[in-house]
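user: Kindly work through both lines:
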Amino acid sequence: MQKLTVEELNRISIENFREAKKLPLVVVLDNIRSLHNVGSVFRTADAFRLEGIFLCGITATPPAIEIHKTALGAEDSVEWKYEEKTIDAVNKLKEDGYVVLALEQVKESKMLDKYKFEGSKKYAIILGNEVKGVQQEVVDACNDTIEIPQYGTKHSLNVSVSAGIAIWEVFFQLREKLM
């Protein structure tokens, strides 16, 4: 098997990306400390053509060399907004008709692989701080909570890994929205 060259991958330009149909998903980063995690989420958001990203609280914003190091330019293609308070981003998204989901371990959370994303709806997924998770006030304001099933000895995943898993599941269920 021969690996494909960059030219053979036939990627779209930033301009075409901006005009392309998007997956009805926004990711909200709630006080993410690591700029590398932020960059990684940008890169995943680009790969699956998300509507955008909200960067909230202490989460760094572009331009930043540490974000660019992992985003590889996706910070230029993916729409993003900054909001000082995550709760304000949640309220704006809900006003705009999004179903807002916290990706967090709570008593009533639904397992991600069992959650049914509907093609007629728009979604926002909140990802929390690497140590403290999603703020309780933000969890309380969400429409629902989802959780990634885990079977090992650890109780959490890296935030950018969690983002990738959650984004993939939404994409997998709603991919026909991009066609």
Strands lie at 23-30, 50-56, 80-83, 98-103, 110-111, 122-128, 144-147. The chain has eight helices and seven strands. The longest strand covers residues 23-30.
